[in-house]
Amino acid sequence: MKRSVRRAYPTLLLRSDIIPRMGRNRLPRPQGSAYITPQGAERLRAELDFLWRVKRPQVTQAVSEAAAQGDRSENAEYIYGKKQLREIDRRIRFLQKRFDEFVIVNQAPTDTSRIYFGAWVRLEDETGKTMEYRIVGADEFDTEKAWISIDSPVARALLKKTLDDEVVVVLPQGRMVYTVLEIRYE
Q1: Disulfide-capable partner of 136 in 145, 147, 164, 175 (CB 3.0 to 4.6 Å)?
Q2: Counting Cβ atoms within 10 Å, is residue 40 exposed (0-12), middle (13-18) or buried (19+)?
Q3: Beta strand pairing call for 130-136 and 120-125
Q4: Could you give the CA distance from residue 159 to residue 105 in angstroms, rounded to a whole number?
Q5: Integer angstrom CA distances of residue 76 from 58, 60, 65, 92, 132
Q6: Are the beta carbons of 181 and 124 closer than 8 angstroms?
Q7: What is the helix (H) or strand (E) element at residue 8, kind and residue range?
Q8: Domain spans of the chain?
Q9: Mean pLDDT over residues 128-151, rounded?
Q10: Cα–Cα distance between 3 and 130 in angstroms, integer?
Q11: Pairing outcome for strands 103-104 and 35-36
Q12: Residue pair 178/133 in contact by the 8 Å Cβ criterion
C-alpha cells in the first residue's frame, strides 16, 4: 500500500514520515552539564550509598519473602517488589555513570565580577520585583532553595554577565528582561 501511494504521489508526505514510530526504547535523556558543587556531589553520594546499602537490601528481602509465598504470577507484593528493585538499580546505574563524568567545582572563579557556575545572583525584572538565584549543576537544582540548573534558559542567559547588565531571557511565557543587581560567591 505504502509503495503504491508513493508511486502515485511522489511528493506526498505520509503520516509515518512526519511522526516517528513509537518504539519500546526511549530516547536517552539529554546530557546535562557535568559541573556540580561539593555539596551536591556529597548529597548524591549519600543517596547512592543509601540506595545501595539500605534500600536495595530491604527490597531484596521483601521480594524473597514474597517469592516464598508461592504463586508469583498473582503475587502483588512480588511483582511490585521486582518493579521497585528495577527502579533502584536504574537509579544506582545512573548515579554511578554520572559520578564518572562529574567535575566538582570547589572554588570561586578568578574573575568574581562575572557570573559563572556557583554564583549567587540577585536580579530585578521590569516590574521592579527582585529575585535571587544560585547557579548549580543539572543534578542539584532545587526551586525551594532558589537553585537553578546551569542548563536552564535563565542561567544560560546570565553566564558571563556583570553587574548592571541587562539580561534578555526567552521563556515559554514570553520574553523577560532582568537587570543584574548583585553577584557573589560563597
Answers
A1: 147
A2: buried
A3: antiparallel
A4: 16
A5: 17, 15, 12, 24, 47
A6: yes
A7: helix 2-8
A8: 34-106, 120-184
A9: 93
A10: 60
A11: parallel
A12: no
Q: Which helix (H) or strand (E) covers residue 35, if one does?
A: strand 35-36
- List pLDDT tens digits, range 49-78: 999 999 999 999 999 988 888 777 788 889
Alpha helices in 29-72, H assignment, sequence order? 38-50, 56-67
Interior CA angle at 104 toward 44 and 109, to 5°?
Answer: 140
120-184: CATH topology: Chitinase A; domain 3 (3.10.50)
162: DSSP letter: B
- Tell me the three cell numbers of residue 8: 502515485
Note the pTM of the prediction, 2 decimals: 0.73
Cα 10 to Cα 27: distance, rounded to the nearest angstrom: 30
Question: Pairing mode, if any, of strands 130-136 and 174-184?
Answer: unpaired
Domain at 34-106: CATH architecture: Orthogonal Bundle (1.10)
